[in-house]
Write a structure and sequence with these properties.
By secondary structure, the chain is of the alpha+beta class. The chain contains 18 helices and 13 strands. The chain has three domains: 337 residues, no CATH class; 51 residues; 134 residues, Sandwich (Jelly Rolls). The strands form three sheets. A six-stranded antiparallel β-sheet has the order 3-11-8-13-6-5, with no helix packed on it. Strands 4-7-12-9-10 form a five-stranded antiparallel β-sheet, with no helix packed on it. It has a two-stranded antiparallel ribbon with strand order 1-2. The longest helix is centred in the middle third of the chain and has 44 residues. The radius of gyration is 31 Å and the shape is elongated.
Length: 585
Protein backbone atom coordinates (compact mmCIF):
# COMPACT_ATOMS: atom_id res chain seq x y z
CA UNK A 1 0.00 0.00 0.00
CA UNK A 2 2.86 2.38 0.85
CA UNK A 3 4.55 1.55 -2.45
CA UNK A 4 1.34 2.27 -4.35
CA UNK A 5 0.82 5.60 -2.57
CA UNK A 6 4.36 6.79 -3.21
CA UNK A 7 4.23 5.82 -6.90
CA UNK A 8 0.83 7.49 -7.22
CA UNK A 9 2.38 10.70 -5.93
CA UNK A 10 5.03 10.48 -8.64
CA UNK A 11 2.44 9.95 -11.40
CA UNK A 12 0.22 12.78 -10.15
CA UNK A 13 3.17 15.16 -9.84
CA UNK A 14 4.40 14.53 -13.38
CA UNK A 15 0.85 14.80 -14.75
CA UNK A 16 0.43 18.22 -13.12
CA UNK A 17 3.78 19.31 -14.52
CA UNK A 18 2.82 18.18 -18.03
CA UNK A 19 -0.47 20.09 -17.84
CA UNK A 20 1.46 23.26 -17.00
CA UNK A 21 3.90 22.62 -19.85
CA UNK A 22 1.07 22.82 -22.39
CA UNK A 23 0.86 26.59 -21.80
CA UNK A 24 4.63 27.05 -21.87
CA UNK A 25 6.22 29.43 -24.37
CA UNK A 26 7.06 27.63 -27.64
CA UNK A 27 9.99 29.89 -28.53
CA UNK A 28 13.59 29.70 -27.18
CA UNK A 29 15.07 31.70 -24.35
CA UNK A 30 18.72 32.60 -23.67
CA UNK A 31 20.95 29.51 -24.16
CA UNK A 32 18.12 27.72 -26.00
CA UNK A 33 19.16 29.66 -29.10
CA UNK A 34 22.29 27.47 -29.25
CA UNK A 35 20.13 24.69 -30.71
CA UNK A 36 19.58 26.82 -33.82
CA UNK A 37 23.32 26.92 -34.62
CA UNK A 38 23.49 23.58 -36.52
CA UNK A 39 20.80 24.58 -39.03
CA UNK A 40 22.35 24.63 -42.49
CA UNK A 41 25.65 23.12 -41.38
CA UNK A 42 27.28 20.21 -43.18
CA UNK A 43 27.81 17.00 -41.22
CA UNK A 44 31.47 17.71 -40.27
CA UNK A 45 30.57 21.15 -38.89
CA UNK A 46 27.50 19.80 -37.09
CA UNK A 47 29.59 17.03 -35.52
CA UNK A 48 32.11 19.62 -34.37
CA UNK A 49 29.29 21.69 -32.85
CA UNK A 50 28.10 18.71 -30.80
CA UNK A 51 31.49 18.43 -29.09
CA UNK A 52 32.27 22.13 -28.81
CA UNK A 53 32.36 23.62 -25.33
CA UNK A 54 29.21 25.62 -24.51
CA UNK A 55 30.43 28.42 -22.23
CA UNK A 56 32.08 26.32 -19.48
CA UNK A 57 30.59 22.95 -20.35
CA UNK A 58 30.80 19.96 -22.68
CA UNK A 59 27.21 18.79 -23.17
CA UNK A 60 27.17 16.56 -26.29
CA UNK A 61 24.32 14.32 -25.09
CA UNK A 62 22.10 17.29 -24.33
CA UNK A 63 22.87 18.85 -27.71
CA UNK A 64 22.05 15.63 -29.55
CA UNK A 65 18.75 14.95 -27.75
CA UNK A 66 17.44 18.50 -27.63
CA UNK A 67 18.53 19.45 -31.14
CA UNK A 68 16.92 16.31 -32.57
CA UNK A 69 13.65 17.01 -30.75
CA UNK A 70 13.70 20.67 -31.79
CA UNK A 71 14.46 19.82 -35.41
CA UNK A 72 11.72 17.19 -35.66
CA UNK A 73 9.05 19.35 -34.01
CA UNK A 74 9.61 22.66 -35.78
CA UNK A 75 11.59 24.12 -32.86
CA UNK A 76 8.62 23.98 -30.51
CA UNK A 77 10.29 24.29 -27.11
CA UNK A 78 7.25 22.93 -25.31
CA UNK A 79 8.38 19.53 -26.58
CA UNK A 80 11.84 20.02 -25.10
CA UNK A 81 10.28 20.96 -21.78
CA UNK A 82 8.11 17.85 -21.95
CA UNK A 83 11.29 15.81 -22.46
CA UNK A 84 12.71 17.40 -19.30
CA UNK A 85 9.60 16.47 -17.33
CA UNK A 86 9.71 12.87 -18.51
CA UNK A 87 13.37 12.66 -17.53
CA UNK A 88 12.57 14.14 -14.10
CA UNK A 89 9.83 11.53 -13.69
CA UNK A 90 12.28 8.73 -14.55
CA UNK A 91 14.74 10.22 -12.05
CA UNK A 92 12.07 10.06 -9.35
CA UNK A 93 11.32 6.42 -10.20
CA UNK A 94 15.03 5.55 -10.02
CA UNK A 95 15.40 7.15 -6.61
CA UNK A 96 12.23 5.48 -5.30
CA UNK A 97 13.68 2.15 -6.35
CA UNK A 98 17.04 3.00 -4.76
CA UNK A 99 15.32 3.81 -1.46
CA UNK A 100 13.40 0.55 -1.46
CA UNK A 101 16.39 -1.60 -2.42
CA UNK A 102 18.77 0.05 0.02
CA UNK A 103 16.38 -0.03 2.96
CA UNK A 104 14.69 -3.30 2.03
CA UNK A 105 11.23 -1.77 2.28
CA UNK A 106 9.15 1.27 1.36
CA UNK A 107 8.66 4.13 3.81
CA UNK A 108 5.84 6.65 3.68
CA UNK A 109 8.53 9.31 3.92
CA UNK A 110 9.65 8.33 0.40
CA UNK A 111 6.86 10.54 -0.90
CA UNK A 112 9.35 13.42 -0.65
CA UNK A 113 11.26 11.93 -3.60
CA UNK A 114 8.69 12.69 -6.36
CA UNK A 115 7.60 15.88 -4.58
CA UNK A 116 11.20 17.10 -4.51
CA UNK A 117 12.27 16.11 -8.02
CA UNK A 118 9.02 17.21 -9.71
CA UNK A 119 8.64 20.48 -7.81
CA UNK A 120 7.43 23.12 -10.28
CA UNK A 121 9.74 25.75 -8.82
CA UNK A 122 12.80 23.93 -10.22
CA UNK A 123 14.40 25.50 -13.27
CA UNK A 124 14.17 22.48 -15.56
CA UNK A 125 10.36 22.65 -15.37
CA UNK A 126 10.38 26.15 -16.90
CA UNK A 127 13.52 26.37 -19.04
CA UNK A 128 14.47 23.70 -21.57
CA UNK A 129 18.22 24.33 -21.42
CA UNK A 130 18.37 23.34 -17.76
CA UNK A 131 18.51 19.79 -19.03
CA UNK A 132 22.22 20.28 -18.35
CA UNK A 133 21.55 20.15 -14.59
CA UNK A 134 18.67 17.69 -14.77
CA UNK A 135 20.64 15.23 -16.90
CA UNK A 136 23.47 15.09 -14.35
CA UNK A 137 20.90 14.39 -11.61
CA UNK A 138 19.29 11.70 -13.77
CA UNK A 139 22.49 9.85 -14.61
CA UNK A 140 23.65 10.00 -10.98
CA UNK A 141 20.28 8.47 -10.00
CA UNK A 142 20.56 5.87 -12.76
CA UNK A 143 24.05 4.98 -11.53
CA UNK A 144 22.69 4.50 -8.00
CA UNK A 145 19.78 2.40 -9.24
CA UNK A 146 22.02 0.07 -11.26
CA UNK A 147 24.73 -0.19 -8.61
CA UNK A 148 22.37 -0.79 -5.68
CA UNK A 149 20.40 -3.26 -7.79
CA UNK A 150 23.68 -5.06 -8.47
CA UNK A 151 24.60 -5.02 -4.78
CA UNK A 152 21.24 -5.83 -3.23
CA UNK A 153 18.58 -6.63 -5.77
CA UNK A 154 19.87 -9.07 -8.37
CA UNK A 155 21.34 -11.64 -6.00
CA UNK A 156 18.22 -11.71 -3.82
CA UNK A 157 15.70 -12.57 -6.52
CA UNK A 158 14.21 -16.09 -6.53
CA UNK A 159 16.10 -18.38 -8.89
CA UNK A 160 19.09 -16.02 -9.13
CA UNK A 161 22.09 -17.59 -7.45
CA UNK A 162 24.46 -14.65 -7.88
CA UNK A 163 24.83 -11.02 -8.85
CA UNK A 164 24.50 -9.96 -12.47
CA UNK A 165 27.52 -8.04 -13.73
CA UNK A 166 25.26 -6.40 -16.30
CA UNK A 167 23.88 -4.05 -13.63
CA UNK A 168 27.41 -3.11 -12.58
CA UNK A 169 28.40 -2.38 -16.16
CA UNK A 170 25.26 -0.25 -16.63
CA UNK A 171 26.23 1.69 -13.52
CA UNK A 172 29.64 2.55 -14.98
CA UNK A 173 28.12 3.44 -18.37
CA UNK A 174 25.88 5.85 -16.45
CA UNK A 175 29.02 7.52 -15.12
CA UNK A 176 30.28 7.93 -18.70
CA UNK A 177 27.05 9.75 -19.57
CA UNK A 178 27.25 11.73 -16.32
CA UNK A 179 30.70 13.01 -17.25
CA UNK A 180 29.24 14.37 -20.52
CA UNK A 181 26.63 16.53 -18.75
CA UNK A 182 28.78 19.61 -18.31
CA UNK A 183 31.51 20.27 -15.77
CA UNK A 184 28.97 19.68 -13.00
CA UNK A 185 28.54 16.15 -14.34
CA UNK A 186 32.27 15.60 -14.84
CA UNK A 187 32.98 16.71 -11.27
CA UNK A 188 30.21 14.45 -9.96
CA UNK A 189 31.57 11.46 -11.88
CA UNK A 190 35.10 12.19 -10.61
CA UNK A 191 34.00 12.27 -6.96
CA UNK A 192 31.86 9.14 -7.34
CA UNK A 193 34.74 7.25 -8.92
CA UNK A 194 37.07 8.41 -6.15
CA UNK A 195 34.58 7.39 -3.46
CA UNK A 196 34.00 3.95 -4.95
CA UNK A 197 37.74 3.53 -5.50
CA UNK A 198 38.42 4.28 -1.84
CA UNK A 199 35.76 1.80 -0.71
CA UNK A 200 37.07 -0.86 -3.06
CA UNK A 201 40.65 -0.53 -1.86
CA UNK A 202 39.60 -0.53 1.80
CA UNK A 203 37.09 -3.37 1.82
CA UNK A 204 35.27 -3.93 -1.47
CA UNK A 205 37.92 -6.07 -3.12
CA UNK A 206 37.33 -8.78 -0.51
CA UNK A 207 33.80 -9.42 -1.79
CA UNK A 208 33.94 -8.04 -5.34
CA UNK A 209 36.85 -9.32 -7.42
CA UNK A 210 37.54 -7.15 -10.47
CA UNK A 211 37.52 -9.15 -13.70
CA UNK A 212 39.28 -8.13 -16.90
CA UNK A 213 35.96 -7.09 -18.45
CA UNK A 214 35.07 -5.16 -15.32
CA UNK A 215 38.38 -3.32 -15.44
CA UNK A 216 37.82 -2.34 -19.08
CA UNK A 217 34.32 -1.07 -18.28
CA UNK A 218 35.63 0.86 -15.27
CA UNK A 219 38.26 2.52 -17.45
CA UNK A 220 35.55 4.05 -19.67
CA UNK A 221 34.25 6.61 -17.14
CA UNK A 222 37.80 7.21 -15.90
CA UNK A 223 39.01 8.03 -19.41
CA UNK A 224 35.90 10.12 -20.15
CA UNK A 225 36.33 12.24 -17.02
CA UNK A 226 40.05 12.63 -17.70
CA UNK A 227 39.43 13.73 -21.29
CA UNK A 228 36.79 16.28 -20.30
CA UNK A 229 38.92 17.76 -17.54
CA UNK A 230 42.05 18.00 -19.71
CA UNK A 231 40.13 19.53 -22.64
CA UNK A 232 38.25 22.02 -20.46
CA UNK A 233 38.95 25.69 -21.09
CA UNK A 234 37.54 27.76 -18.20
CA UNK A 235 35.77 31.01 -19.03
CA UNK A 236 34.32 33.93 -17.08
CA UNK A 237 33.81 33.32 -13.38
CA UNK A 238 35.62 29.98 -13.57
CA UNK A 239 38.91 31.84 -13.92
CA UNK A 240 38.60 33.82 -10.67
CA UNK A 241 37.86 33.12 -7.00
CA UNK A 242 35.66 35.16 -4.66
CA UNK A 243 36.02 35.71 -0.93
CA UNK A 244 35.94 32.72 1.40
CA UNK A 245 33.00 34.18 3.35
CA UNK A 246 30.91 34.59 0.20
CA UNK A 247 31.77 31.06 -0.92
CA UNK A 248 30.79 29.66 2.48
CA UNK A 249 27.52 31.62 2.52
CA UNK A 250 26.46 30.48 -0.94
CA UNK A 251 27.39 26.84 -0.27
CA UNK A 252 25.48 26.95 3.02
CA UNK A 253 22.22 28.23 1.52
CA UNK A 254 22.48 26.02 -1.57
CA UNK A 255 21.58 23.10 0.71
CA UNK A 256 17.89 24.06 0.51
CA UNK A 257 17.97 25.62 -2.98
CA UNK A 258 15.83 22.84 -4.49
CA UNK A 259 12.87 23.89 -2.33
CA UNK A 260 10.40 26.60 -3.32
CA UNK A 261 11.15 30.16 -2.29
CA UNK A 262 8.36 30.04 0.29
CA UNK A 263 9.79 26.90 1.89
CA UNK A 264 13.31 28.36 1.93
CA UNK A 265 12.07 31.53 3.60
CA UNK A 266 10.11 29.50 6.14
CA UNK A 267 13.13 27.37 7.09
CA UNK A 268 15.69 30.16 6.96
CA UNK A 269 19.23 29.30 8.01
CA UNK A 270 17.91 26.49 10.22
CA UNK A 271 16.99 24.35 7.22
CA UNK A 272 20.47 24.49 5.69
CA UNK A 273 22.11 23.93 9.09
CA UNK A 274 19.88 20.93 9.72
CA UNK A 275 20.83 19.31 6.42
CA UNK A 276 24.54 19.85 7.05
CA UNK A 277 24.12 18.28 10.49
CA UNK A 278 22.42 15.29 8.84
CA UNK A 279 25.36 15.05 6.45
CA UNK A 280 27.75 14.78 9.41
CA UNK A 281 25.54 12.19 11.14
CA UNK A 282 25.34 10.11 7.95
CA UNK A 283 29.11 10.17 7.58
CA UNK A 284 29.57 9.18 11.23
CA UNK A 285 27.11 6.28 10.87
CA UNK A 286 28.84 4.98 7.74
CA UNK A 287 32.22 5.29 9.42
CA UNK A 288 30.89 3.20 12.30
CA UNK A 289 29.73 0.59 9.79
CA UNK A 290 33.20 0.58 8.28
CA UNK A 291 34.77 0.04 11.70
CA UNK A 292 32.42 -2.90 12.23
CA UNK A 293 33.34 -4.25 8.80
CA UNK A 294 29.70 -4.00 7.62
CA UNK A 295 30.10 -1.17 5.09
CA UNK A 296 29.05 -2.41 1.65
CA UNK A 297 29.07 -1.06 -1.88
CA UNK A 298 25.58 0.43 -1.63
CA UNK A 299 26.62 2.49 1.39
CA UNK A 300 29.68 3.72 -0.49
CA UNK A 301 27.68 4.50 -3.64
CA UNK A 302 25.02 6.57 -1.85
CA UNK A 303 27.54 8.51 0.19
CA UNK A 304 29.76 9.07 -2.86
CA UNK A 305 26.84 10.61 -4.79
CA UNK A 306 26.03 12.71 -1.72
CA UNK A 307 29.62 13.97 -1.56
CA UNK A 308 29.59 14.55 -5.33
CA UNK A 309 26.51 16.75 -4.93
CA UNK A 310 28.27 18.74 -2.21
CA UNK A 311 31.36 19.11 -4.40
CA UNK A 312 29.25 20.50 -7.26
CA UNK A 313 27.50 22.93 -4.90
CA UNK A 314 30.89 24.08 -3.63
CA UNK A 315 32.09 24.66 -7.20
CA UNK A 316 28.94 26.71 -7.87
CA UNK A 317 29.62 28.73 -4.72
CA UNK A 318 33.18 29.46 -5.88
CA UNK A 319 31.96 30.71 -9.26
CA UNK A 320 28.94 32.67 -8.01
CA UNK A 321 30.93 34.37 -5.25
CA UNK A 322 32.68 36.32 -8.02
CA UNK A 323 29.56 37.24 -9.99
CA UNK A 324 26.91 37.70 -7.28
CA UNK A 325 29.24 38.46 -4.37
CA UNK A 326 27.04 36.47 -1.98
CA UNK A 327 23.81 34.53 -1.64
CA UNK A 328 20.83 35.71 -3.72
CA UNK A 329 17.53 34.22 -4.81
CA UNK A 330 18.83 34.17 -8.40
CA UNK A 331 21.44 31.58 -7.39
CA UNK A 332 18.72 29.39 -5.89
CA UNK A 333 16.49 29.75 -8.93
CA UNK A 334 19.25 28.82 -11.38
CA UNK A 335 21.27 26.22 -9.47
CA UNK A 336 18.55 24.67 -7.31
CA UNK A 337 18.33 21.50 -9.45
CA UNK A 338 21.95 20.64 -8.62
CA UNK A 339 21.05 20.31 -4.92
CA UNK A 340 17.90 18.24 -5.38
CA UNK A 341 19.51 14.87 -4.55
CA UNK A 342 21.25 15.94 -1.34
CA UNK A 343 18.23 16.03 1.04
CA UNK A 344 16.76 12.91 -0.59
CA UNK A 345 19.98 10.92 -0.09
CA UNK A 346 20.20 12.11 3.51
CA UNK A 347 16.67 10.85 4.07
CA UNK A 348 17.44 7.46 2.52
CA UNK A 349 20.62 7.01 4.57
CA UNK A 350 19.19 8.17 7.89
CA UNK A 351 15.94 6.24 7.45
CA UNK A 352 18.13 3.14 7.66
CA UNK A 353 20.48 4.42 10.35
CA UNK A 354 17.95 5.69 12.90
CA UNK A 355 15.69 3.62 15.16
CA UNK A 356 11.97 3.35 14.33
CA UNK A 357 10.79 6.36 16.35
CA UNK A 358 13.60 8.51 14.99
CA UNK A 359 12.70 7.51 11.43
CA UNK A 360 9.05 8.44 12.05
CA UNK A 361 9.99 11.88 13.38
CA UNK A 362 12.43 12.47 10.53
CA UNK A 363 9.85 11.38 7.96
CA UNK A 364 7.22 13.68 9.48
CA UNK A 365 9.57 16.64 9.28
CA UNK A 366 10.70 15.94 5.73
CA UNK A 367 7.16 15.29 4.46
CA UNK A 368 5.80 18.47 6.07
CA UNK A 369 8.52 20.57 4.44
CA UNK A 370 8.26 18.91 1.02
CA UNK A 371 4.47 19.00 0.87
CA UNK A 372 4.55 22.71 1.71
CA UNK A 373 7.35 23.30 -0.80
CA UNK A 374 5.48 21.48 -3.57
CA UNK A 375 2.20 23.29 -2.84
CA UNK A 376 3.98 26.63 -2.66
CA UNK A 377 5.79 25.97 -5.94
CA UNK A 378 2.53 24.89 -7.58
CA UNK A 379 0.75 28.05 -6.42
CA UNK A 380 3.61 30.29 -7.55
CA UNK A 381 3.73 28.59 -10.94
CA UNK A 382 -0.04 28.90 -11.38
CA UNK A 383 -0.03 32.62 -10.56
CA UNK A 384 3.05 33.36 -12.67
CA UNK A 385 1.79 31.42 -15.66
CA UNK A 386 -1.58 33.16 -15.60
CA UNK A 387 0.16 36.52 -15.47
CA UNK A 388 2.67 35.67 -18.20
CA UNK A 389 0.42 33.78 -20.61
CA UNK A 390 -1.09 36.83 -22.33
CA UNK A 391 2.32 38.42 -22.83
CA UNK A 392 3.85 35.17 -24.07
CA UNK A 393 1.02 34.93 -26.59
CA UNK A 394 1.79 38.47 -27.75
CA UNK A 395 5.45 37.57 -28.25
CA UNK A 396 4.52 34.36 -30.03
CA UNK A 397 2.22 36.21 -32.42
CA UNK A 398 4.84 38.91 -32.99
CA UNK A 399 7.34 36.25 -34.06
CA UNK A 400 4.93 35.36 -36.87
CA UNK A 401 4.18 38.89 -38.05
CA UNK A 402 7.13 41.25 -37.65
CA UNK A 403 9.18 41.53 -40.83
CA UNK A 404 11.98 43.56 -39.24
CA UNK A 405 13.82 41.02 -37.06
CA UNK A 406 16.08 43.62 -35.42
CA UNK A 407 13.03 45.67 -34.46
CA UNK A 408 11.36 42.57 -33.05
CA UNK A 409 14.38 41.63 -30.93
CA UNK A 410 14.75 45.20 -29.66
CA UNK A 411 11.13 45.20 -28.53
CA UNK A 412 11.14 41.78 -26.85
CA UNK A 413 14.80 41.44 -25.81
CA UNK A 414 14.24 40.13 -22.29
CA UNK A 415 11.58 37.71 -23.48
CA UNK A 416 14.10 36.05 -25.78
CA UNK A 417 17.36 36.30 -23.85
CA UNK A 418 18.52 37.18 -20.36
CA UNK A 419 20.59 40.29 -21.01
CA UNK A 420 19.97 43.47 -23.00
CA UNK A 421 23.39 43.64 -24.64
CA UNK A 422 24.38 43.55 -28.31
CA UNK A 423 26.24 40.23 -27.99
CA UNK A 424 23.11 38.42 -26.83
CA UNK A 425 20.70 40.32 -29.06
CA UNK A 426 22.78 39.60 -32.16
CA UNK A 427 22.69 35.91 -31.33
CA UNK A 428 18.90 36.03 -31.14
CA UNK A 429 18.71 37.93 -34.45
CA UNK A 430 20.86 35.29 -36.17
CA UNK A 431 18.83 32.48 -34.66
CA UNK A 432 15.45 33.97 -35.53
CA UNK A 433 16.59 34.68 -39.07
CA UNK A 434 17.73 31.06 -39.46
CA UNK A 435 14.41 29.74 -38.12
CA UNK A 436 12.44 31.92 -40.54
CA UNK A 437 14.61 30.94 -43.47
CA UNK A 438 14.04 27.29 -42.57
CA UNK A 439 10.29 27.96 -42.72
CA UNK A 440 9.31 26.72 -39.26
CA UNK A 441 5.66 27.76 -38.70
CA UNK A 442 6.15 29.15 -35.17
CA UNK A 443 8.62 31.74 -36.49
CA UNK A 444 7.39 32.29 -40.05
CA UNK A 445 4.99 34.92 -41.24
CA UNK A 446 1.43 33.66 -41.02
CA UNK A 447 -1.50 35.33 -42.78
CA UNK A 448 -3.85 37.20 -40.44
CA UNK A 449 -6.84 35.79 -42.31
CA UNK A 450 -8.47 32.40 -42.70
CA UNK A 451 -10.28 30.99 -45.70
CA UNK A 452 -13.79 29.56 -45.66
CA UNK A 453 -15.08 28.05 -48.86
CA UNK A 454 -18.69 28.98 -49.41
CA UNK A 455 -21.26 29.76 -52.07
CA UNK A 456 -22.68 33.16 -52.91
CA UNK A 457 -24.80 34.98 -52.02
CA UNK A 458 -24.56 35.04 -48.20
CA UNK A 459 -27.48 36.90 -46.75
CA UNK A 460 -27.27 35.66 -43.19
CA UNK A 461 -24.20 37.63 -42.08
CA UNK A 462 -24.13 40.90 -44.03
CA UNK A 463 -22.67 42.98 -41.18
CA UNK A 464 -19.34 41.13 -41.27
CA UNK A 465 -18.84 41.61 -45.00
CA UNK A 466 -16.79 44.47 -46.44
CA UNK A 467 -19.00 46.99 -48.22
CA UNK A 468 -18.29 49.24 -51.17
CA UNK A 469 -17.84 52.40 -49.14
CA UNK A 470 -14.76 50.87 -47.46
CA UNK A 471 -12.93 50.99 -50.78
CA UNK A 472 -9.95 53.37 -50.67
CA UNK A 473 -8.45 53.13 -54.15
CA UNK A 474 -8.77 51.07 -57.34
CA UNK A 475 -6.01 50.84 -59.93
CA UNK A 476 -6.58 48.96 -63.20
CA UNK A 477 -9.35 46.70 -61.85
CA UNK A 478 -12.76 46.57 -63.57
CA UNK A 479 -16.08 47.14 -61.87
CA UNK A 480 -19.12 44.83 -62.07
CA UNK A 481 -17.52 41.66 -63.32
CA UNK A 482 -14.78 39.11 -62.92
CA UNK A 483 -13.03 37.01 -65.57
CA UNK A 484 -16.32 35.38 -66.60
CA UNK A 485 -18.29 38.61 -66.04
CA UNK A 486 -20.35 37.00 -63.29
CA UNK A 487 -23.08 39.26 -61.96
CA UNK A 488 -23.89 38.83 -58.25
CA UNK A 489 -27.06 40.18 -56.69
CA UNK A 490 -26.25 42.46 -53.77
CA UNK A 491 -22.54 42.67 -54.59
CA UNK A 492 -20.24 44.84 -56.67
CA UNK A 493 -17.53 42.73 -58.25
CA UNK A 494 -14.12 44.19 -59.00
CA UNK A 495 -12.04 42.10 -61.42
CA UNK A 496 -8.32 42.29 -62.21
CA UNK A 497 -8.44 40.53 -65.61
CA UNK A 498 -6.98 42.82 -68.29
CA UNK A 499 -5.98 42.38 -71.92
CA UNK A 500 -2.20 42.62 -71.54
CA UNK A 501 0.25 40.29 -69.85
CA UNK A 502 2.35 43.01 -68.20
CA UNK A 503 -0.37 45.11 -66.61
CA UNK A 504 -0.61 45.49 -62.86
CA UNK A 505 -3.45 46.60 -60.66
CA UNK A 506 -4.61 46.88 -57.08
CA UNK A 507 -7.71 47.25 -54.95
CA UNK A 508 -7.31 48.88 -51.54
CA UNK A 509 -9.85 48.43 -48.72
CA UNK A 510 -10.19 49.96 -45.27
CA UNK A 511 -11.27 47.14 -42.91
CA UNK A 512 -12.12 46.29 -39.30
CA UNK A 513 -10.97 43.19 -37.46
CA UNK A 514 -13.55 40.44 -37.87
CA UNK A 515 -14.73 41.53 -41.33
CA UNK A 516 -14.66 39.25 -44.38
CA UNK A 517 -14.42 39.63 -48.14
CA UNK A 518 -15.17 37.27 -51.04
CA UNK A 519 -12.18 36.48 -53.29
CA UNK A 520 -11.91 34.42 -56.47
CA UNK A 521 -8.63 33.67 -58.33
CA UNK A 522 -7.39 31.47 -61.14
CA UNK A 523 -6.30 29.51 -62.99
CA UNK A 524 -2.99 30.13 -61.15
CA UNK A 525 -2.09 32.76 -58.58
CA UNK A 526 1.67 33.21 -58.78
CA UNK A 527 1.52 37.00 -58.94
CA UNK A 528 -1.58 37.59 -56.83
CA UNK A 529 -0.69 39.09 -53.45
CA UNK A 530 -2.42 40.43 -50.35
CA UNK A 531 -0.72 43.25 -48.44
CA UNK A 532 -1.85 44.08 -44.89
CA UNK A 533 -0.95 47.48 -43.42
CA UNK A 534 -1.38 47.50 -39.62
CA UNK A 535 0.30 49.47 -36.84
CA UNK A 536 2.73 50.99 -39.31
CA UNK A 537 3.95 47.54 -40.41
CA UNK A 538 3.44 46.14 -43.91
CA UNK A 539 3.24 42.36 -44.43
CA UNK A 540 2.82 40.58 -47.74
CA UNK A 541 1.02 37.24 -48.25
CA UNK A 542 0.11 35.07 -51.26
CA UNK A 543 -3.51 35.22 -52.36
CA UNK A 544 -5.30 31.86 -51.94
CA UNK A 545 -5.96 30.05 -55.22
CA UNK A 546 -9.66 29.27 -55.66
CA UNK A 547 -11.71 29.41 -58.85
CA UNK A 548 -14.82 29.36 -56.68
CA UNK A 549 -15.52 32.29 -54.38
CA UNK A 550 -13.73 31.95 -51.03
CA UNK A 551 -14.53 33.95 -47.92
CA UNK A 552 -11.42 35.53 -46.39
CA UNK A 553 -12.05 36.34 -42.73
CA UNK A 554 -9.62 38.86 -41.22
CA UNK A 555 -10.12 38.00 -37.55
CA UNK A 556 -6.61 37.21 -36.32
CA UNK A 557 -5.93 38.53 -32.79
CA UNK A 558 -2.70 40.07 -34.07
CA UNK A 559 -4.69 42.59 -36.10
CA UNK A 560 -5.61 45.98 -34.63
CA UNK A 561 -9.19 47.18 -34.67
CA UNK A 562 -8.66 49.06 -37.96
CA UNK A 563 -6.20 48.28 -40.76
CA UNK A 564 -5.83 48.43 -44.54
CA UNK A 565 -5.74 45.56 -47.06
CA UNK A 566 -4.44 45.85 -50.64
CA UNK A 567 -5.16 43.14 -53.21
CA UNK A 568 -2.43 43.13 -55.88
CA UNK A 569 -2.37 41.62 -59.34
CA UNK A 570 1.22 41.99 -60.51
CA UNK A 571 1.13 41.08 -64.20
CA UNK A 572 0.56 38.04 -66.46
CA UNK A 573 -3.01 39.03 -67.21
CA UNK A 574 -3.54 36.21 -69.73
CA UNK A 575 -2.98 33.43 -67.19
CA UNK A 576 -4.02 35.02 -63.90
CA UNK A 577 -6.95 36.99 -62.61
CA UNK A 578 -8.63 37.86 -59.34
CA UNK A 579 -12.05 39.14 -58.35
CA UNK A 580 -13.27 40.78 -55.14
CA UNK A 581 -17.00 40.87 -54.30
CA UNK A 582 -17.96 43.81 -52.07
CA UNK A 583 -21.35 44.13 -50.44
CA UNK A 584 -23.44 46.77 -52.20
CA UNK A 585 -24.57 49.77 -50.11
Amino acid sequence: MKDLSVKAAAYVAVLIAIIFSLNFRPYPYADDWAYVSPLGLEWPEAFRWVFEQHVDHYIPLQKIFHFTLAYLTGYDFRVLLLFNLILAFLTALCMLRVARLYRGKVSWGDIIIPLGILNLSLGYTTWAFQLQFLSSVFFASLFLYCFVLFERGAGQRPGNAGRSNGYLYCAFFSLVALALCGMNGALSALVILAGLGGWYLLSGRKTLPLTRTGLLVLLMPVLTVTTVVLAWQPTGASQTVGSVLNIAEIHFYLQTASLSSGARNMLGAGGAAGLLLMLILSGAWLYARYRKNTLDGSDAALFSVLLATQAVLLSVAVGRAVVQGGWTGVVAMHYGPLSVLSPLLLWILLSRALPGRGVALLAAGFVAVYVFSYANGLKHRFVHQNQALAHQTTVQLALKTETDIEQLVDKYTLDLTWKDEDEYKNGVVRGLRALREAGYPIYSLAPPFRTTRTSLPIGSAPDELVSGHQRVQVDNWRENGDYERTQLDGYTVWGSFVSGDTDTGSLSLRMRRGQAVFVRTGPVATNQRIVVLANGIQNDYPMPLSQAYTLLVFDSPILPEHFQVIFHDDGDGWGEWAAIALKRE
